[in-house]
Amino acid sequence: QVQLTESGGGLVQPGESLTLSCRIARNIGNIYDMGWYRQAPGKERVMVARHIVGGRTEYAESVRGRFTISRDSDQNTVTLQMNSLKPEDTAFYSCNARHIFNGQNSWGQGTQVTVSS
After folding, report:
1. What is the pLDDT of residues 78-111, one digit of tens each?
2. Contact 113/89 with Cβ under 8 angstroms?
3. Fewest CB atoms less than 10 Å from the CB: which of 2, 21, 47, 61?
């Protein structure tokens, strides 16, 4: 497993932006897909955005066009840029690393995002 540390959560108003960062503790090379998931109160955890090895990205329909996932060239930081935030984006956001060969998942401790006026 890999150690992941998220930062950047907080309280914002609707329409504002927020950037989440996920720092990977060690150089993991190009063998992990990286993603952001979120869990709202009383709901299951769902995928928000994923950065697949090779550069392809995937987004949940609810955030497509508003959120952007990116991964720096050294593979050690994954960022989720969230624009035009809505109250329904309020959730606990977690960073995920998934080994592309054995499917093993690693999770960060998570960070709270609250969108409220």
Report:
1. 999 999 999 999 999 999 999 999 999 999 999 9
2. yes
3. 61
